[in-house]
C-alpha cells in the first residue's frame, strides 16, 4: 500500500530517528575503537600516541579482568537462575485462584520500579548492615551471630539485591505467557491421567519455553551492565570481589582517567554483549511478521 | 465532467504483475461496476484510480486532466471503503465534515453541507454520536455522507456492502442506485457479487487475473458473454457447460446453456437423466439432474415443480439460447438452430 | 471435586500468596515506615513496626539540607523531557514503519533494537569527552539527549506495535479526504493511538526515571536527578537511615504508582512483542 508520495514521506519521517541512532551508535563506538589503540590518559594530556593492541594486551591479561569476567558471569548466572526458578514458581502461584490476586500481583512487581540506587542503599543499610540492619536484629532475636553480608559474602549479597529487582520482571513475563496457555489442554492432560508434576513438565514448561528464553536474553543484556548497585554498595570491593566488567571499565575510565585502557575494556564488553544480542535478535526477528 | 480514462496502465508488485496493460474509458455520469473473483485485481484497479497506489506504467486522466502522478487528495475523487474507515474518535458530524475542514471551508458552509448530507441520508438524529454507537447500515451511510459532501468528480466504492447482512444489503443497494440517479455523478463500484453488479451497473467490467474479460451492459454480458469465463461468472445458478460429443454436434468445443433456458419435462426431451437434488425456493425450483450423456445439469423451473430425488426427467435447451465456445474458451457466433 | 476442598485450597493459596507478596514488598514497606521514624528509632533493636512516634521531620530535613526539590525536578525534567523528545522523533518514524512498510522496515527495526543492546561502557568515554568539551557535562540538556537516545528504540518499537493495530484504510480515507501527512498524523492517527501513546509515555518515563548508569556518570551536583542524589547517601555522615528512607520514599513513590498502572504495557514494551 504505497505510492511514490508516501514512500518519499516515509523516508523523510524515518530519517531523524535513523540518523540520530546511527550517530549515537557509530560515532562514539568508532571513537572508542580508536581510543583503544592509543596511550591516552586524561591526567597526562598531550601524551597520546598510537600503541597498537597494547591496551588490549594489558586489559585482557590484567588479573582484575579475569576477576571481573568471573564476577560478571557469576552475577549474570546467579541472578538468572534465581529469577527464573523464582519467577516460574511465583507465576504458577499467581495464576491460581485466591483472594486479592490483583493486590498481591502489585506487591510482587513493585521492586522493578524502585530505582537501582535506592534499592541498593536500602538493602545495604537498612537490611544487610551488620549492626543496625533488620537482618542483624532478626539474627540476634534468634540468638545467631549477625552476618556482615557485603563484607563477608559481597558478591552473593549483590546477587541477592539484583535478584530482588529482577524477579518481578521474570514473574510478570512468565505469568503473561502462562495465562495464554489453553486451559483445555491441561484438562485434557488431566483426563489422560497426568499428575500435577507431569502436567508441569510436559505441558506447562514447554509452553513457557519461549518466554523463558526471552527473559534469559533480555535479563542477560541488562545484567551484563549492572552498575549502580555495585557503585553504591561496595565500589567493586573488597579488592575486586564485586567488580564486574562494566564497573571495571567505569573505574578505568572515569576514576583512573585511563581512556585508552577503558576504551579497550569497553570494546571487549561490546563484543561480549553482542554474542548474547545475536541470539536475542533472532528470537525477536522470528516473531516479527512483516 | 467525470470522465475517467485509463490508458495502457499496468501494475506490478516487485516481479509480480497484477495488472497487465489495460485500457478503459468510463463515461461521465456512468455507474460502472468492476466485478470478478477475489484476487482478480479489481480492488487494485480501484486503488490505482484513487491514487492510493502508483501505476507502474500508463496514464490515468480524470475529467480530461492527467492525474497519473497526482496524490489521492488532488484527484477530486471520494471513496467509500469496505470497512467504512470512519474516524472512530470523531462524531458523525465531524466525520462528514472532515474533508471539508481539510479543504479549509468556513464553518458556516461546513455546517450547511453536513446538515444537508445528513438529511439526505437520514442521519440527522445521529450527528453527535460516534461511529461505535451506530449500526452497520448507519455507518455505511456516514461513509457515503463523508463522500458526497465533497461533491467529487467521481465516487469510488470498494465492496461497500460486504459487511452488511443480506436484508440490509438489498436496501443499501437501492439507496446507492437512488443516490446515483439524483447526483448523476460517475460512480465506480467494486464487488465480487454478480447480483450487485447486475442490479446496479450501467456498465459492468468483468476482470479476471488483472485482465478485462468483457465490458458491457448487464444484459449484454448476460445474453452475449464473449467467453466462457464471463458466461460462467454472470448469472446464478451458473451456466451449464457441456463438452464432448454433444458440443461437437453443435460444431463447438463446448456449449453452454443457462439453467433458466432448460425446459424440464417428465416425459421426453433432448437429454435424459435422474434428479439428484431439487431445491424448492417457492418462486423457482432448481433441479440438479445427473445425465449419462452430458454430466450434471442444473435447470431452473419457474414456480413449484413436483420432482424429487430419483425421478427420471428430460431436459431440452430453448431454441436460440445455446452458447458455443471454441477450444480457447472464446464465444463463437450464435448457433444455427438445429433440431 | 467437593466445594469445601476448593474453598480450603483457596484459603491456603491466599495465605501463601499474601505471605510471599508481603515478603517481596517488605523492603519498600520498611523504607516507607522508617521514613516516619526518628533517627534513633530507625536503628532501634528490636525494631518497631507501627508503635513508634510518627514524625514528618525527615522529609523537611532532607529538603533543607540538600535541596531535595531541585533533584526531584531534575528527575521530572529529564525523564519527561527525554520521553517527549523521543516521542516527537519516534511518532513519524513509527508511522512510516507501520503504514508504509518496505522490504527494509524489519531490518531497520531490528537494527534500532540492536543499538539498545550496546553496553553503555562501550560508548562511555567518547560521550563523556564530547560532553566535557561541549559543556553538556552535568547539564539537564545533556542528560535529556542521552536518555532520549537510549530509549528511542523502545519508543519507536512500542509505537510501531500500537500503530500496527490501527487499520490502514482509515488513514487512506483521510488521504482521500484531502489530509496531508501532518493532518493525517495529527488529526487521525494520534487521536486513535492515544492509549498506546500513553502507555509508551508511561513506560519510558519509568525507565528514564530509574536510569542509573548515565545519570551517575554524567551528572554532578547541578543536574543530578534522584538516582544520583540518592547515591550520595552511600558515604553518609552520622545517623541517616530515616532521612535516607524519606528521600527514597519520595523518589520511588510516584514512579511506583505509575508502574502499577502500566504493568500490562511493561511486558509488551520490554519484550518487544516477543511475549504477548
How would you portray this structure in words?
The complex is a heterotrimer of chains A (290), B (339) and C (276). Chain A is mainly alpha-helical. Chain A has a single domain, classed as MetI-like fold (Orthogonal Bundle), CATH 1.10.3720. Chain A has a two-stranded antiparallel ribbon. Chain A is globular and about 75 Å long. Chain A contains 13 helices and two strands, in the order αββαααααααααααα. With 339 residues, chain B is an alpha+beta fold. Chain B is built from nine helices and 18 strands. Chain B has helices at residues 42-50, 92-102, 107-120, 136-148, 166-183, 194-200, 218-223, 228-233, 245-249, and strands spanning 4-13, 16-26, 31-35, 57-62, 65-66, 77-80, 154-158, 186-191, 203-208, 211-216, 240-243, 254-257, 262-265, 271-280, 284-291, 295-302, 312-317, 323-325. Chain B has a six-stranded mixed sheet with strand order 6-7-8-3-9-10, sandwiched between helices. A five-stranded antiparallel sheet of chain B has the order 13-17-14-15-16, with no helix packed on it. The longest helix of chain B is centred in the middle third of the chain and has 18 residues, at 166-183. The mean pLDDT of chain B is 90. Chain C has two domains: 3-57, no CATH class; 65-271, Orthogonal Bundle (MetI-like fold), CATH 1.10.3720. Chain C has helices spanning 3-34, 39-42, 57-66, 68-99, 105-116, 124-134, 140-163, 168-176, 181-192, 194-210, 213-218, 226-231, 241-261, 263-271. Chain C is globular, with a radius of gyration of 23 Å. The two termini of chain C are 32 Å apart. The mean pLDDT of chain C is 86. The chains are: A mainly alpha (290), B alpha+beta (339), C mainly alpha (276). Chains A and C meet through α1, α3, α4, α5 and α6 of A and α1, α4, α5, α6 and α7 of C.
Amino acid at each position: 500500500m504505497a505510492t511514490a508520495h508516501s514512500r518519499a514521506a516515509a523516508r523523510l519521517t524515518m530519517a531523524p530517528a535513523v540518523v540520530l541512532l546511527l550517530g549515537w551508535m557509530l560515532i562514539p563506538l568508532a571513537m572508542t575503537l580508536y581510543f583503544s589503540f592509543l596511550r591516552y590518559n586524561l591526567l597526562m594530556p598531550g601524551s597520546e600516541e598510537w600503541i597498537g593492541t597494547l591496551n588490549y594486551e594489558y586489559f585482557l591479561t590484567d588479573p582484575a579482568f579475569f576477576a571481573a569476567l568471573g564476577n560478571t558471569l557469576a552475577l549474570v548466572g546467579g541472578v538468572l537462575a534465581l529469577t527464573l526458578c523464582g519467577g516460574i514458581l511465583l507465576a504458577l502461584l499467581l495464576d491460581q485462584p485466591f483472594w486479592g490476586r490483583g493486590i498481591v500481583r502489585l506487591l510482587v512487581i513493585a521492586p522493578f520500579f524502585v530505582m537501582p540506587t535506592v534499592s541498593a542503599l536500602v538493602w545495604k543499610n537498612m537490611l544487610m548492615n551488620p549492626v543496625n540492619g533488620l537482618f542483624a536484629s532478626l539474627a540476634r532475636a534468634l540468638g545467631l551471630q549477625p552476618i556482615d553480608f557485603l563484607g563477608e559474602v559481597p558478591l552473593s549479597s549483590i546477587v541477592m539485591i539484583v535478584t530482588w529487582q529482577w524477579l518481578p520482571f521474570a514473574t510478570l513475563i512468565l505469568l503473561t505467557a502462562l495465562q495464554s496457555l489453553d486451559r483445555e489442554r491441561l484438562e485434557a492432560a488431566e483426563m489422560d491421567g497426568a499428575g500435577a508434576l507431569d502436567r508441569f513438565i510436559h505441558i506447562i514448561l514447554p509452553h513457557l519455553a519461549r518466554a523463558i528464553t526471552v527473559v534469559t536474553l533480555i535479563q542477560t543484556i541488562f545484567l551484563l551492565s549492572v552498575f549502580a548497585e555495585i557503585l553504591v554498595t561496595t565500589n567493586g570491593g573488597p579488592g575486586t570481589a564485586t567488580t564486574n566488567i562494566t564497573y571495571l571499565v567505569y573505574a578505568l575510565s572515569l576514576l583512573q582517567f585511563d581512556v585508552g585502557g577503558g576504551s579497550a575494556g569497553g570494546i571487549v564488553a561490546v563484543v561480549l554483549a553482542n554474542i548474547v544480542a545475536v541470539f536475542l535478535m533472532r528470537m525477536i526477528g522470528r516473531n516479527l511478521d512483516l | 465532467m467525470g470522465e475517467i480514462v485509463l490508458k495502457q496502465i499496468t501494475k506490478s508488485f516487485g516481479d509480480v504483475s497484477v495488472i497487465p496493460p489495460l485500457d478503459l474509458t468510463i463515461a461521465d455520469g456512468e455507474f460502472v461496476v468492476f466485478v470478478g473473483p477475489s484476487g482478480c485485481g479489481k480492488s487494485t484497479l480501484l486503488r490505482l484510480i484513487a491514487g492510493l497506489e502508483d501505476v507502474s506504467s500508463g496514464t490515468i486522466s480524470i475529467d480530461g486532466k492527467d492525474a497519473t502522478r497526482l496524490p489521492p487528495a488532488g484527484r477530486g475523487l471520494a471513496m467509500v471503503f469496505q470497512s467504512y474507515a470512519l474516524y472512530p474518535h470523531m462524531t458523525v458530524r465531524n466525520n462528514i465534515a472532515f474533508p471539508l475542514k481539510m479543504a479549509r471551508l468556513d464553518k458556516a458552509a461546513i455546517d450547511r453541507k453536513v446538515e444537508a448530507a445528513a438529511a439526505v441520508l437520514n442521519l440527522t438524529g445521529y450527528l453527535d454520536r460516534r461511529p461505535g454507537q451506530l449500526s452497520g447500515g448507519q455507518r455505511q451511510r456516514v461513509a457515503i455522507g463523508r463522500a458526497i459532501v465533497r461533491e467529487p468528480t467521481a465516487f469510488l466504492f470498494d465492496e461497500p456492502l460486504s459487511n452488511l447482512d443480506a436484508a440490509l444489503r438489498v436496501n443499501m443497494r437501492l439507496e446507492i442506485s437512488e443516490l446515483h440517479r439524483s447526483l448523476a455523478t460517475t460512480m465506480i463500484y467494486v464487488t465480487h457479487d454478480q447480483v450487485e453488479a447486475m442490479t446496479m451497473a450501467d456498465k459492468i467490467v468483468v476482470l479476471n487475473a488483472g485482465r478485462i474479460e468483457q465490458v458491457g451492459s448487464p444484459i449484454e454480458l448476460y445474453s452475449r458473454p464473449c467467453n466462457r469465463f464471463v458466461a460462467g461468472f454472470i448469472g446464478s445458478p451458473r451456466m451449464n457447460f457441456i463438452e464432448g460429443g454433444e458440443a461437437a454436434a453443435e460444431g463447438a468445443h463446448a456449449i453452454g446453456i443457462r439453467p433458466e433456458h432448460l425446459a424440464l419435462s417428465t416425459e421426453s426431451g433432448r437429454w435424459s437423466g435422474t434428479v439428484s437434488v431439487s431445491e424448492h425456493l417457492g418462486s423457482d425450483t432448481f433441479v440438479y439432474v445427473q445425465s449419462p450423456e452430458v454430466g450434471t445439469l442444473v435447470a431452473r423451473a419457474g414456480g413449484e415443480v413436483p420432482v424429487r430425488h430419483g425421478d427420471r426427467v428430460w431436459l431440452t435447451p430453448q431454441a436460440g439460447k445455446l452458447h458455443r465456445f471454441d477450444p480457447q474458451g472464446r464465444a463463437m457466433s450464435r448457433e444455427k438452430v438445429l433440431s | 471435586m467437593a466445594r469445601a476442598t476448593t474453598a480450603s485450597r483457596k484459603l491456603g493459596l491466599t495465605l501463601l500468596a499474601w505471605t510471599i507478596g508481603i515478603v517481596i514488598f517488605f523492603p519498600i514497606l520498611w523504607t516507607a515506615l522508617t521514613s516516619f521514624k526518628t533517627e534513633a528509632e530507625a536503628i532501634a533493636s528490636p525494631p518497631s513496626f507501627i508503635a513508634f512516634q510518627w514524625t514528618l521531620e525527615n522529609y523537611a530535613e532532607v529538603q533543607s539540607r540538600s535541596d531535595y526539590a531541585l533533584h526531584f525536578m531534575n528527575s521530572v525534567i529529564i525523564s519527561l523531557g527525554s520521553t517527549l523528545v523521543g516521542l516527537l522523533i519516534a511518532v513519524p518514524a513509527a508511522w512510516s514503519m507501520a503504514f508504509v512498510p518496505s522490504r527494509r522496515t524489519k531490518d531497520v527495526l531490528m537494527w534500532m533494537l540492536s543499538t539498545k543492546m550496546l553496553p553503555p561502557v562501550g560508548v562511555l568515554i567518547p560521550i563523556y569527552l564530547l560532553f566535557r568539551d561541549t559543556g553538556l557535562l552535568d547539564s539537564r540538556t545533556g542528560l535529556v539527549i542521552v536518555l532520549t537516545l537510549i530509549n528511542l528504540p523502545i519508543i519507536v518499537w512500542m509505537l510501531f506495535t500500537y500503530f500496527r493495530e490501527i487499520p490502514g484504510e482509515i488513514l487512506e480515507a483521510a488521504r482521500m479526504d484531502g489530509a496531508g501527512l501532518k493532518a493525517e498524523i495529527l488529526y487521525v492517527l494520534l487521536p486513535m493511538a492515544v492509549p498506546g501513546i500513553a502507555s509508551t509515555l508511561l513506560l519510558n518515563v519509568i525507565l528514564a526515571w530509574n536510569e542509573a548508569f548515565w545519570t551517575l556518570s554524567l551528572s554532578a551536583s547541578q543536574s543530578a536527578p534522584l538516582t544520583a542524589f540518592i547515591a550520595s547517601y552511600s558515604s553518609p555522615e552520622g545517623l541517616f537511615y530515616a532521612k535516607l528512607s524519606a528521600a527514597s520514599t519520595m523518589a520511588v513513590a510516584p514512579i511506583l504508582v505509575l508502574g502499577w498502572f502500566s504493568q500490562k504495557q511493561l511486558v509488551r514494551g520490554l519484550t518487544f512483542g516477543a511475549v504477548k
